[in-house]
Design goal:
By secondary structure, this protein is an alpha+beta fold. The chain has one domain: Alpha-Beta Plaits. It is built from four helices and seven strands, in the order αββαββββαβα. It is globular. The N and C termini lie far apart (79 Å). The C terminus is likely disordered.
């Protein structure tokens, strides 16, 4: 025989039991403004010295993000087999309505939700990079103006990233942003 309050006790305990079964609260980490002098996690270059969209990512229990000098650097890093399981959030600049030379650090989009333009004519920190956008229409407009192909995150592979040609006149090396 069960006590009279048994169903009420079950109702109170159910969220705790279900929580212990792997359901976790949403991750509250958010993108932050790139601090002056921030260096790229991959290559060590100072982000503020270069044009184009940047990226940032949180790993495991880290309270501060790792910074990336370009979407290319971030996406290559994210595609490494040992990285995916540790990432707790990754963001790229939303270039819709922001200047290529100095992306707006208040405009971010989750990397996996962004639309990318690969093969366009504008240089990033390491030469070629992908332009990133929150809205597909902005990515399509950018592609009409600067060339390239619009792609969702799921179509970006290491093979694609490795095959990007340098933008015209870029020479394949890093190019500082205009002052």
């Amino acid at each position: 025989m069960r006590p009279a309050g048994f169903p009420a006790v079950l109702a109170l305990l159910a969220p705790l039991v279900l929580g212990a079964c792997g359901t976790q609260p949403p991750d509250e980490r958010r993108p932050v403004a790139v601090p002056p002098g921030a260096a790229c996690h991959v290559c060590g270059m100072i982000l503020g010295r270069f044009p184009g969209p940047k990226g940032e990512a949180y790993v495991e229990a880290a309270q501060r993000p790792l910074f990336f000098c370009s979407t290319l650097e971030l996406l290559v890093w994210l595609r490494q087999p040992d990285v995916a399981a540790r990432v707790r959030g990754a963001w790229v600049h939303d270039m819709g309505g922001t200047a290529w030379e100095r992306p707006d650090d208040t405009r971010w989009v989750r990397a996996e939700e962004a639309w990318y333009v690969a093969g366009h004519a504008l240089p990033g920190a390491m030469g070629p990079t992908l332009a990133s956008f929150a809205q597909r229409a902005d990515a399509e407009r950018f592609a009409r103006e600067h060339g390239g192909e619009v792609l969702p995150y799921g179509r970006i592979t290491l093979e694609l990233l490795g095959s990007l040609p340098p933008p015209p006149g870029a020479g394949g090396g890093p190019r500082p942003a205009a002052p």
